[in-house]
Amino acid sequence: MESTPHDQVATTTPHRDSGMTQEDIVAFMAGLPGVMTVIGSAESGTPEISWGDTFFMYDPEGTQEPRRRMPFATVVTKDYPGFDTASDLDRPGVFRLNIDIGRAAFEELIGYPPAAYAERAAHIDHTVLDRLVPHPAYARQGWVAVLNPGAATSALVRTLLTDAHARIARTTARTTQRRTGSQERAGS
Q1: Which residues contact 18 (CB under 8 A, 6 or more apart)?
Q2: Are 77 and 60 in contact (CB under 8 A)?
Q3: Could you say which DSSP state residue 149 is in?
Q4: 57-94 b/e (C-beta count within 10 Å ≥ 16 → b)
Q5: What would the mean pLDDT of 89-95 be, rounded to a whole number?
Q6: Average pLDDT in the 56-71 region?
Q7: Rama region for 121: left / alpha / beta (φ>0; ψ in -120 to 50; rest)
Q8: Which tens digits make up the pLDDT trace of 16-45?
Q9: Are 51 and 78 in contact (CB under 8 A)?
Q10: Edge-to-edge strands, sheet with 133-134
Q11: Burial class of residue 42, CB neighbours in 10 A (0-12, 13-18, 19+)
Q12: Contact 41/178 with Cβ under 8 angstroms?
């Protein structure tokens, strides 16, 4: 299996904790300002295949319909047949944390650009626990994944989630500024 720069970091960097459960991830995300957490269900209006999965979106005003927001992180608890089965999430107790870290951070952490993922995917073990890997379906968009973050990745995961949150907050602020500026110019 292919080694990434993170593999060396994970084996040489001491961590103070033993890992993160799904509940720990939800609690961590609840501490970041403007994060909307949606758990897939009939009530939330998400597709049935995603029921039980958790989606983290940025909505600082709390005014957007969740289905209109793109998540910047997710927790997936099962395989999506015909689409996303590389992580073998149907194993008991296994879940995958997915994080949109962006293309530049992806290249820095993984060691190659997201566009090069397809030619390397066959050499990556997406079933291994507690290791940062390219997301099996969304690597090209700059997403990474960790199955059951443990002692080797939990500190890194917290940093990546915080950075992803800051990134989406900056993007949202710029978009809001542009819209506001356009509306003001249109009204003049």
Answers
A1: 150, 151, 154
A2: no
A3: -
A4: bbbeeeeeeeeebebbbbbbbbbeeeebebbebeeeeb
A5: 97
A6: 84
A7: alpha
A8: 468 999 999 999 999 999 999 999 999 999
A9: no
A10: 35-39, 54-58, 73-76, 96-100, 143-147, 133-134
A11: exposed
A12: no
Helix 22-30 and helix 154-187, axial crossing angle in degrees, nearest 10: 40
Separation in Å, CA 64 to CA 59, 69, 78, 167, 170: 7, 7, 27, 19, 17
| Torsion over CA: 76, 48, 91, 20 (sign) | positive
Residue with tokens 């962006």: 102
pLDDT, position 18: 82
DSSP lists the bridge partners of residue 38 as: 55
Strand (E) positions, 28-174? 35-39, 54-58, 73-76, 96-100, 133-134, 143-147
Kindly report the average pLDDT of the chain as a whole number: 88
- The token duo for 167 is 């990134």
